[in-house]
Each structure stands twice: as C-alpha cells, then as structure tokens.
Amino acid sequence: MKMTSLRLLLWCFSGVITRNHCLPPIGTQPEQVHISYPGLKNSMLITWSSANETESVVEYGVWGGKLFTHSAKGTESVFVNEGVEQRVMFIHRVLLSNLTPGASYVYHCGSSFGWSDIFFFSALNESDNGRIGDEFMRQIESIAAYTPYMTCPGNHEWVANFSQYRSRFSMPGDTESLWYSWNIGPAHIISFSTEVYFYLEFGLDLLFTQYQWLRSDLEVRMGRNDTTPPAPGLEDLFYQYGVDLELWAHEHTYERLWPVYNYKVLNGSSEEPYVNPKAPVHIITGSAGCREKHDGFIPHPRDWSAFRSSDYGYTRMHVINHTHLYLEQVSDDQYGKVIDKMMLVKEKHGAHAWS
Ligand SMILES: *[C@@H]1O[C@H](CO)[C@@H](O)[C@H](O)[C@H]1NC(C)=O
Ligand SMILES: *[C@@H]1O[C@H](CO)[C@@H](O)[C@H](O)[C@H]1NC(C)=O
Ligand SMILES: *[C@@H]1O[C@H](CO)[C@@H](O)[C@H](O)[C@H]1NC(C)=O
Ligand SMILES: *[C@@H]1O[C@H](CO)[C@@H](O)[C@H](O)[C@H]1NC(C)=O
Ligand SMILES: *[C@@H]1O[C@H](CO)[C@@H](O)[C@H](O)[C@H]1NC(C)=O
Ligand SMILES: *[C@@H]1O[C@H](CO)[C@@H](O)[C@H](O)[C@H]1NC(C)=O
Known about the structure:
It contains five helices and 20 strands. A hairpin with a 4-residue loop joins strand 18 and strand 19. By secondary structure, the protein is an alpha+beta fold. It is elongated and about 80 Å long. The strands form six sheets. Strands 3, 4, 7, 8 and 9 form a five-stranded antiparallel sheet that branches. The chain has a four-stranded antiparallel sheet with strand order 1-2-6-5, with no helix packed on it. A four-stranded mixed sheet has the order 12-16-13-17, with no helix packed on it. The site of one 2-acetamido-2-deoxy-beta-D-glucopyranose has 5 residues, from loops.
C-alpha cells in the first residue's frame, strides 16, 4: 500500500508540469478485487472491475521474496447492467496457475493504466496425498473390520471426481460403489448418490445413468416395466414404486418425518401414522456429521416434521420381518440414550402399497 501512495505522489509532482497528469486514472483504475478457487489444482482466479476498458494483468510473487516476479494476463468482458441506466462496466479475470500449495503470494492487479492496492493470499494446500483418507479408514477399522460397512458418497468426497471414495470401497455391482442395491432378509436396500445432481462438472450423464439404473432396479423388484420417458426427479420415482423408507443425510441433525408425499402428510391413521402409511417415510440422519458442528432447524417445523434433534448420534435399524421395521436414534451427547423410536408396519409393499 505504501508503494502505491508513493507512486501517486510522484505522479502528482510530475503533473505540476502538465496538469492533467495529476488526475488519478479513474476509469481504468481496478476496483472490487476478489479472489476465488477455480477448482483447478494449484491455481487462483483474480476478478475485479473497472469503469473503462483496459488491460487485465496480475503481477505477483511469493511473499517475502522479490516483489512481483510473475505476471499473468487474463480476459476482460463487458457487463451491461439490466437496470434503466444500462450502466456499463468491465469485468477482468486472470487465472494464476502453477502456484506452490500452501505458499503465500503477494499481488496487485490492473494494468499500467492503474494498479490496485497490494493484496495477498495463500495458495490452497489441497492435496494431503490421500493421508486424511488413510486416517479415516484407520479410524473406522474398529467397526468396519467386524460388520459390513455399507457406504454412499456425500459432498465431502467430491475431490478429484470422488476418486478416494471410488477407489477405496467395494460395494456390490460395477459402479465403483457410487450406486448399488442389495438384499438382506426381507429388505431390498438401495444406496444412491445425490451428488450426481450437484457435481455436474463430472458428467451430466451420471445423473441420467443413475436415474435409469434406479428405475430399472425398482422395476425389477416390483415386476413392472413402465416404458414412459423418465423425468429424472427422485420423489415421484420412489413414490411410484412404493419405497417404504428413505434415509437421507447431509444436514448434521436428526429428523423423523410423518409419511409425506408432495408436501402432503399421508398418515396410516392419525393414531398410528406409521401403520400402513400412504407415502414413504423419510428420516434425515446426518448427525454423526463431522467437526463442522450441528446444523440448525427452521424455527417453525413444517407439518411433516415429527421429531427433531441436533444431538450428535446415529441411527439403528432392525428389519424384523416382511411387515415390521424398527428404527431408533441414539444420542452420543446423552451418553447412548435412545431419544427417538419408530415402528414402521406395512402389510403391502411396492407400487400398490398406497392403495
Ligand atoms: C469511461 O466510463 C465512463 C462511465 O461508464 C464513461 O462515461 C466514459 O465515457 C468512459 N470513457 C471512455 C474513454 O471510454
Ligand atoms: C500441506 O498439507 C500437508 C498434509 O496435511 C502438510 O504436511 C504440509 O505441511 C502442508 N503444507 C503447507 C505449506 O501448509
Ligand atoms: C467421474 O467418474 C465417473 C465414474 O467413474 C465417470 O463416469 C466420469 O466420466 C468421471 N468424470 C470425469 C469428468 O472424469
Ligand atoms: C422392459 O421392456 C423393454 C422393452 O420391451 C425391454 O427391452 C427391457 O429389457 C425390459 N426391462 C425389464 C427390467 O424387464
Ligand atoms: C399424522 O399423525 C400425527 C401423529 O398422530 C399427527 O400429529 C398429525 O397431525 C397427523 N397428520 C395428519 C395430516 O393427519
Ligand atoms: C413380525 O414382527 C412383528 C414384531 O415383532 C410381530 O408382531 C409379527 O407377528 C411378525 N410377523 C410375522 C409374520 O412373523
């Protein structure tokens, strides 16, 4: 910052001769500088705007070394504001690549027609070369070596196209554990990835492939073969095929819902909502969570919310027989206390379960 003011001062002095030089270079002066991680290893994206057209340059260098040893050029685009004034501004983007992971950099942006203040950032130290994955696998060994540890991918697994997840686990089928189904006792259990709806950069076809797979897995189960074109949403699909129970996560909380479909609570009866319900039952069980703490709840629960807890904990499920499924929620914060229970009873399963 000192440097910049010094430079302005010098310009002003020299401007004594030709007055105009003393005016600061307003229209081409960079402003609104911000940085983002572009999702490419060892890189950083610098974005800023200027009122007038100019060049897009970032000068940078490692903190503590010689100032601005590197320079990178980027692109400028025109942004016409949609309001009545139709204001025009120029947005500049410069990608810095081949940064050293974890190293601090000093930079300024603009061009010889005006430089920003001097800022700094630390390049992401994104790769631990799989050591956190190793540590996780070591920690779960105490349970996963003794009892089948069945998984599904979540958003924390996204790095490098879910490669840690795909490479380390061994779930049924040939989808690198991304989605699969299996039978145990009277239950047919499906594991699928909601991440295909969020990480579209890894291929939109994953979303469609999984949807087709889900549909045919449910079809085969239900002995149906409906060939109408699919619309890849999940609630209708699971309702159509009479799925009994859906376990969700991501929120670091526990919530049991009354049977619900399309915003309507469809209890079996108001005395026994889970005996022959008229819609799937949803449980959100993400409170095992990680060290990102708990997620809050909206203050006024919706009609379908039956029980909520933000205690750390986990869910136990017992598929008793063809008609009865028992589920309970254990609180770690309350030293193993069972804080919620549900007995789901269904005499009919599959596509005709709701009639
Ligand atoms: C610089 O931008 C301002 C504001 O948009 C505009 O009024 C002016 O004409 C521009 N100057 C040049 C040289 O383009
Ligand atoms: C980057 O992360 C690794 C693994 O966590 C660590 O050993 C290393 O010291 C970190 N490097 C920097 C520069 O922070
Ligand atoms: C990500 O991984 C999936 C599963 O292996 C694969 O089908 C897809 O093509 C990959 N996407 C990219 C962009 O590599
Ligand atoms: C459904 O029917 C189509 C066309 O008749 C057939 O190609 C497909 O294999 C069937 N799928 C199942 C799961 O039976
Ligand atoms: C569903 O059952 C629960 C528990 O008896 C009750 O509180 C709720 O009002 C019922 N909802 C409807 C729409 O019947
Ligand atoms: C299924 O389990 C429930 C609960 O234990 C029991 O009441 C019911 O009789 C069982 N049904 C059959 C067919 O065994």
